[in-house]
Design a protein that fits this description.
Number of helices: 7
Largest sheet: 6 strands, mixed
Helix content: 25-40%
CATH class: Alpha Beta
Strand content: 15-25%
Number of strands: 14
Distance between the termini: 35 Å
Radius of gyration: 17 Å
CATH architecture: 4-Layer Sandwich
Shape: globular
Strand order of the largest sheet: 1-5-6-10-12-11
């Protein structure tokens, strides 16, 4: 047991060191492909299947957050993903979801976090609080967990502090497919409309947003410019990934993205 605990501690410490060295906004290259993965929520089988199928020298795999809670194998899932991150630090990209921010903002259900000891909760919380927030491709795609932060420039994402209002927007924000800007909140989740979406996408010079987080959302919104995917059986009976060709000159809409079931 002590050996297992030391191994777990080492894994978290090594992963935290990598995350601390990454910017909050990860910029992808203009070669190869990027495979975007929605919430996995303790679905170890999904994480294994995706990395075995897609991870290669020519393909990066971008996880959009929410690796723990809901599913039955949260601990195994996060251990596996962190281990793969250590082996492939440039090709496995892990963004932060609201379920990685429990020590910042508590929520329910939180079966993973509540089954940890106080010391374990602090250790996991410290590591996962270092995860980056967003990813951008050179041809017009941005990926986040929830919604877009209300900052002036895309690069300003690097200056967002964990727990501030913009962090809350990224981790907890929902989109509603109707006119409006800030639509208020619902069960602690800020709600935003199409005016908010278009304004920030224009500011960021982005064409398509790929996100997860919101299982009741219309998967395709805002004139095919907002795609919501999930990759865990904890939510839906199918698992979806979105594949972006990074070498393509420009991604104009979801029609330029390949969706696959895994």
């Amino acid at each position: 047991m002590e050996a297992m605990e030391r191994e777990e501690q080492s894994l978290l410490e090594q992963a935290e060191e990598i995350f601390r060295g990454e910017p909050k906004l990860i910029r992808l290259p203009d070669t190869g492909k990027a495979v975007f993965v929605g919430d996995t929520h303790g679905d170890l089988e999904a994480s294994r299947s995706i990395l075995e199928r897609y991870l290669s020298d020519h393909q990066k795999v971008v996880f959009l957050g929410d690796y723990v809670d809901r599913g039955e194998a949260s601990r195994e899932n996060i251990h596996y993903l962190l281990s793969m991150k250590l082996q492939h630090p440039k090709d496995v990209i892990m963004l932060m979801g609201n379920h990685e921010g429990y020590i910042v903002k508590e929520f329910y259900p939180a079966n993973f976090w509540l089954n940890l000891t106080d010391g374990e909760r602090e250790r996991y919380g410290q590591t996962l609080a270092q995860l980056p927030y967003a990813v951008a491709t050179p041809n017009g795609v941005i990926g986040v967990h929830g919604s877009l932060p209300d900052v002036e420039r895309l690069e300003d994402i690097n200056d967002i502090e964990t727990g501030d209002e913009n962090w809350d927007q990224i981790m907890w924000g929902d989109f509603q497919d109707r006119s409006g800007n800030d639509l208020g909140g619902f069960w602690g989740r800020p709600q935003y409309g199409r005016d908010y979406f278009y304004r920030l996408m224009d500011q960021f010079e982005r064409q398509v947003l790929i996100r997860s987080h919101q299982p009741n959302a219309n998967p395709i919104m805002f004139k095919k410019r907002c795609l919501t995917i999930f990759t865990s059986y904890a939510y839906l009976p199918i698992r979806t990934v979105a594949i972006v060709d990074l070498a393509q000159e420009r991604v104009e809409s979801i029609d330029d993205i390949v969706l696959e079931m895994v």
